[in-house]
Write a structure and sequence with these properties.
Number of helices: 6
Structural class: mainly alpha
Helix content: over 70%
Number of domains: 1
Shape: elongated
Largest sheet: none
Radius of gyration: 20 Å
Number of strands: 0
Distance between the termini: 76 Å
Strand content: under 5%
Length: 188
């Protein structure tokens, strides 16, 4: 067992740096996607925005903040485990809120994959973070790092699937502007 937390995290530093940079880029791309679809985000689509776009940004941001936390120097076993645990609990509560919103407002219009990928699967990622926090508190760094990596991959996979799903939805629902004057009308 490594004698210090710094030694325990050393082998994982590059992984956390790479994944953190990817998560930061994905958060930025979600803002770009929201800007592209801004014409759709009116009062009619405020509920779907809260249920689908915001959670995806939150899950990507959770990965980013976890990676930042894990690369910060000066943690003790208690501080790292405690902060990971608090973040995991906040994520679980948030997933419960999203699932409640989805079931209340979109039950009839969503298939099981959407329910799973927007709330249930990310909730599993946060459970993995909670288990990792427990392993950190028990000074089991090998187990903790493996669980953290699994949690990160679950949240990234769910977020990527959801981002793709949203972009398809935006492209299908985007208002079509009038044809330009230089194009002939396509009337039969």
């Amino acid at each position: 067992m490594p004698s210090s937390l710094t030694e325990a995290l050393h082998d994982w530093r590059d992984f956390y740096m790479l994944v953190g940079a990817a998560a930061a880029a994905l958060v930025g791309l979600m803002f770009v996607a929201a800007s592209i679809g801004a014409s759709l985000f009116n009062d009619k689509y405020l509920g779907p925005m809260r249920a689908f776009i915001t959670p995806t940004v939150v899950h990507f941001a959770s990965v980013l903040f976890a990676c930042i936390l894990l690369t910060m120097p000066g943690h003790s076993w208690l501080s790292l485990g405690g902060l990971l645990g608090l973040g995991a609990l906040a994520g679980l509560i948030y997933c419960g809120r999203v699932l409640s919103l989805i079931l209340k407002k979109f039950r009839a219009s969503l298939d099981w994959q959407d329910r799973a990928f927007y709330a249930v699967i990310p909730g599993f990622g946060y459970l993995l973070f909670l288990a990792a926090a427990t392993m950190e508190l028990w000074r089991q760094p090998a187990s903790a790092n493996a669980l953290i990596a699994a949690a990160i991959m679950v949240l990234l996979a769910a977020g990527l699937r959801n981002a793709w799903d949203m972009m398809v939805w935006i492209s299908v629902h985007a208002p079509v502007g009038p044809s330009s004057p230089s194009e002939p009308d396509a009337q039969p």
